[in-house]
Amino acid sequence: MQPTIEPMQERDVVAIAQLRLATFFEETGRTLEDDAAGLRELIAGDGFEAAFVARIGDVPVATCLLVRHELEPAHDLTPWLAGLVVDSSHRGRGIATALVRATEAHAAALGVETRYLYTWDARDFYAALGWNTVEIFGQDNETMALMARRPRL
C-alpha cells in the first residue's frame, strides 16, 4: 500500500511523538507529553512552520518538519528541514523522499529560497535529493553536517 503524505493532524500527534521519542530523544528526559505539546504548537501555528506525516491506511508511520529554529546556537539560519523519521518497518519504500519533497514544496510555496538541515549520518541520502554540504562540525561530541538546498531554477 502506498503512503499518503499530508499535513499532520491532531489524530497523528501521539503516534508521531512516540516515534520521535524512540528515535531522537531516548535518555534525554524529554517526555511524550513534551513532544506532543511541541507538535501541537507547530501544527496550530501561523502556517509557515509545518509538520507532514506519512500514513499507511490510517496509521502514521513517518514525519518531517519545516521549522524556524534548530539546534541553537550552532548556526543562525532559517528555515530548517527537521525531524525526518520513518518507522523502521516501513523504511526503504521511498517514504522519506516523499516527505522531504512535501516539505520542500511547502517551503517553496512560501517563497523560501534556501532551507537547511543537520544530519549525523544521512549526508548521502540528502545529497541524492540535491542537498549540498555546507559545513562539517562538532556538536555534543558528535560530527554533524550542515546542509542546504536552494529551489531548482
TrEMBL record:
It comes from the Bacteria. Its EC number is 2.3.-.-. Keywords: Acyltransferase, Transferase. One of its GO terms (molecular function) is acyltransferase activity. It is an enzyme of class 2 (transferase). Residues 3-152 form the N-acetyltransferase domain. SUPFAM superfamilies: Acyl-CoA N-acyltransferases (Nat). This is GNAT family N-acetyltransferase. The lineage of its organism: Bacteria, Pseudomonadati, Pseudomonadota, Alphaproteobacteria, Hyphomicrobiales.
